[in-house]
Each structure stands twice: as structure tokens, then as C-alpha cells.
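Practice problem: predict the structure.
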Amino acid sequence: MQVLVGTYTELPAPEIAHGRGIVRCSLHDGELAELKVIMAIPNPSYLAPSPDGERLYAVSETLDALAEPSGSIHAFVCRDDGGLDLLGSCPSGGIGPCHLAASPDGHFVLAANYGSGTIAALAVDPHGIGPVASVVAHTPPPAHPHMIAFDPLTERVVVPDLGLDAVLVYELDHAGQLAERADLRVGLPTGSGPRHVVFHPNADTAFVVTEIASTLVLLRRENGVLTVAGSVSTLRHDDPTSRAGAVRLSPDGRHVFVTNRGPAGGSVAMLRYDEDRDTVVLVALESTHGRHPRDCALTPDGRYLLVANQESDTVGVFAVDGEHETLSYMSSLAIATPACVLPLTQ
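Answer:
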């Protein structure tokens, strides 16, 4: 199996960012092996495939407000040999784009610009990406949209905003214009810092991880509206210095995985979702064998969880046993400043 790793190549503190761009790896029997750097672009901190898998999109999470453009989105064609060909690049519509996603119809790529508090829709065509079709500023400051997701039932745009302590919902029209549905906004506790969201296969349940409170918030759709149905800590004991990172869902929808970035080291939480009772329970908490696990991802078959330990320059591999609800550390691969991991389906 092929795995792509996006890395930080530069940061405001350059001594802790020394990645080389997008790195292609292979995964076999729980062991990762680096193949080559396939695209040396600045700070590809998040990667997303097109719906048909023929393209790859990447952010360049640059933070300089005086730069032009201050943030960028890149579009690549995926070659049969695993390489990438650059189709084009476009400004992200803001500063510090940290996440992106392609629309279900493949016509647009949406970016969350954490630094400037904006989200943007970029047009996609057979020849590349851009221009920016629309930009929306989240207010009041400090707004920090952290992720772009699409509701699998309605195809609306769902955006957790860490600064606003809310999950915002947008309509995206055929021209790429974004319009918030204020009536669908989901408010979360003040200071909790919603970061990422993932939808259950039943499409009526979603899970939001809060970075600052280190909680997993359960959302349920009632009369067409997502509302808070409960929450659970992603830690065994309260630790106000820990910061949650990524959230992922097993292919069968039974288990949720969350990374925790604690000062003494990283951990990954495995939580059981009981669909009949509509409850979430923490069942396992394991060290990531590294520091600052910014991202994690499951292989398509759900057998392995890959964890990007940003500050210890490693990507760890865990075997997932859903029946016995365990995570078993398998191995680590040294990769400088890993920010995101993307297992490929082919």
C-alpha cells in the first residue's frame, strides 16, 4: 500500500521545521518504508484526493501576511507509477491554509485559512485549479476555521472553527458561492476549541474533536439539524496542557480514534461508539511513541492506524484490533516534521 506524508518545510520557528515536501512511502505488514520525495513544495501540511482519486490537492500553509500569495493550494495529477505532476497552483484566499477538501462533484476545492479566519472555494477544471470563486470571513476575531468537511447526507459544507467555538454550516452553489446557514450553526462550550469533524456511515451522526478541551463531542441529526448529544474526554485524566489533534473513524463506524498532544508525549485514544445506545466510551489509550501527534489516518481496510508525530520526526504504525479493542504499536519511520498522512486506496 502507498502512503503519502505531508511535511512542514518551514515555520515561524525554522529550527523545528525541516521537512522536504510530500513524501511517498510504502506500507507492508505494519512496516513503513520511505520511497522518495515526490513534490518539494512549502509546508504541504494537509493533502486531499479528488473524488475520483485521479488528482491530489495540497495546501501550502504559509503564515506571512505580507507575502503574495500568503497561502496556496496546489493541484496534481496522480501518475500510475505513484508520482505527481503539478497541474497548477492558486492563492488560498487567506493566510495559513491548514485544511482542504474537494466537493463531492469534484468541481471545487475548499480551503480553511486558519491564520486569516477565512474559508474559500476554488474552481477546478481539467487544466488546473483556480481562480478563487468566493471567500467568506468568519467573525468576530479571533476566528480560526480549522477544517473543511462535506455533510454526506446534504452535501453542505461543515467547518469547525476553533476561535468561535462553533461548527458552521454553508451552502455551496454551482458557481462556487458560499452562504452560511446560520440556523444550522452548532455552538460548543466556550474555550473548547472545535478542530476537526468526521461523519458516521449512518450520515446522521458526527463526531467533533475539541483541541483545547480534549473532548469528543457527539452530534446527532434531529429534524435535519445537527445538535450536541453528548461528549467524552479523550484522556484518562484531566490535563489542561494537552491538545487534541486529529479524529478518524473505523470503516465499520464502531470506533473513533483521536490523537492527544501532551507535553510529556503523544497518545492516541480509541473510543467505542454504540449506535443503539448513542454513546461513546474511551476503551484504550496508547502512547504514540513520539511527540505532538498532529494527524492520524486509518488504512482503507481499518487494519492499521498511522500517526504523524510532528515534533519527534516519526510516523508510527499501530495494528488495530476492533474485536478486542486494542491498539498495538508496530513500528516507526523517521520522516522530518510530518504533518499529515494519507493512505492511498490503490
